[in-house]
Specification:
This protein is an alpha/beta fold. The chain has 23 helices and 29 strands. The strands form 7 sheets. The chain has an 8-stranded parallel β-barrel, surrounded by 5 helices. It has a 5-stranded parallel β-sheet with strand order 17-16-15-18-29, sandwiched between helices.
């Protein structure tokens, strides 16, 4: 197959200063939770992007100097020459596939609390550091000598980046994270010298750094500038018209303009709060100010939308971070006429949580993300089958569907038995809740793949008993039977049943998603889950006319969604909708028309008169079929059954991303040699100690 001619424009080469990108697909810089710690893993991950057709593949932000570190976040570093070999390895992986390698040099300044180096942070103006965790650290106001030092450090980092082989060397003024953004923004820059006050003065350092970088690398590399177009704070922050004036001032100075919003939580909103293309009103007129190419993002997955952006003159490059994570092969699939095979990003931001949790990034749609080197998984390829024996999978939720399609691609004959009348399990149910419709893509992609695999058969309305399984004559069975929300309130706070729960009619999220509604109009939600479910059900019920009382032992609603950068939006929406929020309260007793709670700090009792109670606490694995099969273990041999494996939520309920990962893992490991559980089952980077003379340590000692 080949691409449709209407997409030809997306595959035109585009010059970026002295280099040329072979198409318009541009993987903008994005974090990944691996950085300097997982050197090979992050290099291979970027290389897979290049293999998948992205003509430009960039690093995450890369710290240029030890005086500004953003520990505990794990990004890249280019502090001195010792960092070059690791970065050069990444460049080599990218260059192997005829892509350009970009590095986003970053001096975080006010955003860097310097927990690692313990240097005093520096900023345009002395004030508390603007970190994600309210660090009790303040930055000092930079002197003119400090500014000269940063210019020198940035130039040195640019030269190191060039020696590492990078083709694009960024100046980063984006997301309210880049140091140069802080000079541009009035809320951070209160200076009265030549670097403060007027817009021209506030833009002076950015102009100087771009000039310094271009002079340093000459015509050997391009110099893009990534800049925030708006802080979405009105006159209290940096506004679009100001930034457009800045771009107009230095329109032709950088080789490319990479435009974004500030902060990061505004630029990468979840699909629950930000539609595809949400940034377009901000970047739509940038091309009117410059002849340089412009790249922007918008969680784009539709090639027709991409073509429209280029033809309308809004963008020269289609910038992607999250869509390139969900499908590293997105450009190649468009080029090969396989649009239906694209794994579309669902905008859940589980990828972002990797950065916040300092752990390798994961993706709900793409379970191979971060596992390309660690486990040897590829987003598009998987080894052939090891035998001819068919496989039975019970359950067509996200785990079962992933296992089925990957086993089918390995060449196995797979039968999937689903008790319900539709595929998708929890994903299908949850995608009908407010704001979560994009999550349906998890099911749509896998069903589309399965329909192309004659090896895979799906059977609906097929609830199986243990005896049924034994009669079906399968040697290997995987149980992806999912989980159900608990009705007794057991969770983080209560590790045994909530007093009164067994005598009181209780609602669970499963009831609501199945169409049940509470008696009366005043409903209490006790949220001890702390992810999205409690908040989205509150939104649903209040939109249907209920009066909702939201009670949680956490200090805020949906607390874990801080890691997906949407907690503030969830709380804002619930407040605006009229949800009564009661944080720091632990449920102590539930009855038919009353609910008691106690302050988690003082124990002070509070009573709520309610018509019904919805408990959002934890889930119980649906492992009854497994128990039934194990009770009949003596009959397995006669039935030809050799193994029964619980996978996904039926083992231990977690996120949808965990379930999809479990499905891929089962498919990868079927017929593989058993790895003892006391052996690390994936690759990891090992630190080697070197003494002062350059030799290896043979035993622990004093450095």
């Amino acid at each position: 197959m080949s691409r449709h001619p209407r997409y030809d424009i997306l595959f035109e080469p585009v010059p970026i200063g002295p280099v040329v990108a072979r198409n318009r697909f541009y993987q903008v810089p994005h974090c990944n939770g691996m950085g300097y710690r997982d050197a090979t893993a992050v290099a291979v991950m970027r290389g897979i992007k290049a293999e998948g057709g992205w003509s430009v593949v960039c690093t995450e932000q890369t710290e240029i100097h030890h005086s500004s570190d953003i520990n505990p976040f794990i990004e890249l570093r280019i502090w001195d020459d010792r960092d070059i070999p690791m970065l050069a390895g990444m460049v080599d992986r990218i260059h192997e596939h005829d892509a350009l390698a970009g590095i986003e040099l970053a001096y975080n300044g006010l955003n860097g609390p310097n927990h690692y180096g313990r240097e005093v942070p520096m900023a345009p103006t002395a004030m508390p550091v603007a970190s994600f965790s309210y660090d009790p650290v303040q930055a000092k106001e930079m002197s003119l000598q400090d500014i000269r030092d940063v210019r020198r450090w940035h130039r040195a980092a640019a030269l190191r980046a060039r020696r590492a082989g990078f083709d694009l060397i960024y100046v980063y003024a984006g997301h309210a994270l880049g140091f140069f953004h802080h000079f541009l923004s009035r809320r951070y820059n209160h200076r009265s010298d030549e670097y403060g006050g007027s817009l021209e003065n506030r833009a002076r350092l950015l102009k100087e750094i771009i000039t310094d970088t271009k002079e340093a690398v000459g015509d050997t590399a391009a110099v893009p500038c990534r800049i925030s177009l708006d802080e979405l704070m009105g006159p209290d922050g940096l506004e679009k018209n100001e930034v457009l004036d800045v771009i107009g001032m230095m329109a032709e100075l950088p080789d490319l303009w990479d435009v974004c919003l500030a902060g990061w939580e505004n630029d990468s909103q979840t699909s629950r709060f930000g539609p595809e293309g949400a940034q377009e009103p901000y970047f739509a007129t940038v091309k009117n100010l410059t002849t340089r190419p412009v790249v922007g993002v918008g969680r784009y997955t539709s090639p027709d939308r991409m073509v429209s952006l280029v033809k309308s003159g809004k963008l020269d490059f289609i910038g992607c971070a999250r869509p390139s994570i969900a499908d590293p092969y997105l450009p190649k699939k468009i080029e090969e006429g396989r649009i239906e095979d694209i794994r579309e990003c669902i905008g859940c931001n589980i990828c972002v949580s990797g950065d916040f949790l300092m752990s390798p990034m994961r993706c709900t749609q793409n379970p191979s993300m971060s596992e390309e080197w660690r486990r040897g998984w590829h987003p598009e390829r998987i080894r052939g089958r090891g035998c001819d024996e068919p496989v039975l999978i019970v359950g067509a939720g996200p785990c079962g569907l992933e296992a089925a399609q990957m086993l089918g691609k390995r060449g196995y004959n797979v039968t999937v038995a689903e008790a319900g009348k539709e595929a998708g399990g929890r994903v299908t149910r949850e995608s009908r809740l407010p704001g979560l419709s994009a999550w349906r893509r998890v099911v749509d992609y896998r069903m589309q793949q399965i329909h192309k695999l004659p090896e895979v058969e799906l059977h609906f309305a097929s609830e199986l008993t243990a005896a049924d399984v034994l009669e079906l004559d399968f040697r290997r069975v995987a149980l992806a039977t999912g989980s159900r929300w608990r009705r007794d309130g057991v969770g983080r706070h209560w590790t045994s049943a909530v007093p009164g729960a067994s005598e009181t009619p209780i609602l669970t999220p499963d009831d609501i998603m199945a169409g049940a509604r509470p008696p009366g109009s005043r409903i209490a939600i006790w949220d001890d889950d702390h992810y999205y479910m409690g908040g989205v059900l509150a939104e649903l019920l209040i939109s249907e006319g209920c009066e909702v009382v939201f009670i949680t032992p956490a200090p805020e609603v949906s607390s874990w969604t801080r890691h997906t950068m949407e907690q503030h939006l969830i709380q804002k929406k619930l407040i605006e909708m009229g949800v009564a929020i009661y944080p720091n309260l632990a449920l102590s007793k539930v009855a038919a028309d009353v609910l008691e709670a106690k302050c988690v700090f003082t124990g002070q009792r509070q009573v709520f008169e309610v018509d019904s109670t919805l408990l959002v606490t934890s889930r119980k694995a649906n492992d009854e079929l497994a128990a039934g099969l194990h009770a009949l273990h003596d009959s397995w041999a006669d039935a030809g059954l050799e193994s029964v494996t619980l996978i996904g939520d039926s083992v231990a309920p977690a996120t949808i991303a965990h379930a999809v990962f479990a499905g891929r893992k089962f498919a990868e490991e079927l017929d593989a040699a058993d790895v003892p559980n006391d052996v690390v089952a994936f690759r990891r980077e090992i630190t080697e100690l070197v003494d002062r003379e350059g030799g290896n340590y043979s035993s622990p000692g004093t450095p």
